[in-house]
Amino acid sequence: MSSFSTTGDSLRQIGDEGFYVVNEVVSKRLGHIPIIKGDFHLLPAKVQRFVTEKVELMRPRGIYICDGSQNEADEITNKLIERGMLSPLKAYENNYICRTDPRDVARVESKTWMVTPDKYQTVTHTPEGVEPIMAHWLAPNDFSSELDSRFPGCMSGRIMYVIGFSMGPIGGPLSKIGVQLTDSNYVVLCMRIMTRMSPAIWDSLGDADFVRGIHSVGVPRPVREKVINHWPCNPDRVLIAHRPAEREIWSFGSGYGGNSLLGKKCFALRIASNIARDEGWMAEHMLIMGVTNPQGHERFIAAAFPSACGKTNLAMLEPTIPGWKVRVVGDDIAWMKFGADGQLYGINPENGFFGVAPGTSHKTNPMAMESFQKNSIFTNVAETVDGEYYWEGLEKEIKNPKVEMINWLGQKWHIGDAGKAAHPNSRFTAPAAQCPIIHPDWESPKGVPIDAIIFGGRRPEGVPLIFETFSWIHGIFVAACLKSETTAAAEFTGKSIMHDPFAMRPFMGYNFGQYLQHWMDLAKAPKGEAARKVPKIFHVNWFRTNKEGKFLWPGFGDNIRVIDWIIRRLDGDDSHALKTPIGYVPTEGSINMDGLDPVKWDELMSVPKEYWQEDVKEVRKFFEAQVGIDLPAEIRRELDEQEKRIAAM
Ligand SMILES: Nc1nc2c(ncn2[C@@H]2O[C@H](COP(=O)(O)OP(=O)(O)OP(=O)(O)O)[C@@H](O)[C@H]2O)c(=O)[nH]1
Ligand SMILES: O=C([O-])CC(=O)C(=O)O
Ligand SMILES: [Mn+2]
Fold first, then answer.
1. Residue 154 bears catalytic tag
2. Which domains can be identified in the chain, with CATH numbers?
3. Is residue 555 in contact with ligand 1, taking CB distance under 6 Å?
4. What is the CA(160)–ligand 2 centre distance, in A?
5. What is the pTM for the complete model shown?
6. What are 382-423's pLDDT values in tens digits?
7. How high is the ipTM of this complex?
8. Whose CA is nearest to atom 3 of ligand 2?
9. Which of 8, 151, 412, 578 has the largest count of CB atoms under 10 Å?
10. Sign (positive/negative) of CA torsion 203, 207, 213, 219?
11. CB of 358 closer than 6 A to ligand 1?
């Protein structure tokens, strides 16, 4: 029998919150835990049990059941303004800025764990002494002690918010429900933008199971250390742990989005990829865009680039060649499933954009700019005395270039001063529905038909602007070899090229060899279903540089020129592709360059033999060290074949 029961309504004011208690949870051990908002009795029984168990563990001073309403958001926002955590950006409507503790600015890959009874459910068989980089494993016993040293009493003196949310349109066949508990009201406001949060969740859920998220900033009251920028966090004790079998996430010590908005990377990628494997679909770090050509025919494309490598920008691109139209379905995560008709369909499980601010401007990404003119939250950007946001990349667009600002560290700052205005991983959080080019079908429950998948990364050297892979399996091989220069989205400093297979290294939810096998298996339709029409797979590189380190390709809106070539390939145009050892590249003249400053075609498109000889050796080492016996034989064969093709160049 549960040690909890609930009592009826009572009305009183508690603490300094000024909220009224409508009912309360009674624990034999803890006494009365006031429900500050919402009706506990209306939660599904399983959610009630989840909440009461965690209340007993984390001992908040009150429970706040969120309904996702505007009133609720206003109430929380006002509270945060009072406390100094948020401030309004007066130049816009309902836009707010906040600065984090400077130690809490990005995902912490090294403290992110998958907890499975068998190590090899999580990681591949790496040789003695080789630390797996794709997923980090924590043994259940070790997890228990990590948990015990953090969570008991961690919400003491704080309010626990209960957030019911749907990833994907509520009730849709590809959608999933989660419940996140958190003691951060910043997280509540951001989850309200990033997920679908409404009382309809509880009706849709009924008795069914849900993904459980438990999040605490890890600063119980009374607070022992000084809180910086009104941003409580506990950087030394950060832990982001997932129990895939239990569909459960435990996040401690960080308020930064990628660590704390549990619907996003933790649920929609790490946990969902486990569900997807069990249920025969895919959860990927991909944008989805609809592209209409001048003839009026629309195609949907999914694309995976590592963090801060251009997904948001590609998803919303404003074409620089006439007649083309791009509309965004999603900018970061795609859940995709083959239909019985053999077509792959994809949804964007999110409800908002959590985008990189620096580099975003009317020139590079006007549609993102339009999306965050209201109802948005900016984290770690600079603020001008006129109440505008500012970051690197807006130099030419700011009204008054001499204006005084407060930089992300809270110091007075002007353009030209030392240091940066905004943290390189500063972010905007904006409702997707506000994007002027949001696709009319972006909330279609069954998803949009995906005809091509693009992979890419930041590759200063050797990798052509675009190539098409030879087959589904060769495409999987190319995605497994994906590499990119490190960015500020995680804790790595300095620029080095890292492996980031499928742009999923930080988000891998299970053994990478099995993940590859799952991708391969998806090509085969189950009995009774139409043969699967697997998407064509491409690789792009917007970031190749010349000897001076300058980008050879203008990128952004001009990337439509590459998409145009891709779509012609989908349409069966065979006349404009040259076979190379790594795939098909465009023949010179087959990419529309009208109106562009001259581009150094050879430097941009070449496939240098020496570079690729080195690359294939390096990839072989990587596979041996990081995938080992878990590497499917077919993928090893692709490597062998590619090596032979390169040798014969
Ligand atoms: N040179 C160049 N830079 C680009 C291009 N596209 C994006 N960028 C820059 O890359 C950075 C990150 O781009 P985003 O589109 O936000 O990256 P993302 O893949 O959505 O990142 P996450 O949200 O971290 O997953 C920004 O500073 C952009 O300005 C491009 O085509 N060329
Ligand atoms: O998770 C985050 O912090 C933001 C993001 O999209 C990424 O890093 O890929
Ligand atoms: Mn991302």
1. no
2. 11-86+104-280 (3.40.449.10), 283-350+440-647 (3.90.228.20), 353-434 (2.170.8.10)
3. yes
4. 25
5. 0.96
6. 999 999 999 999 999 999 999 999 999 999 999 999 999 999
7. 0.99
8. 258
9. 151
10. positive
11. yes
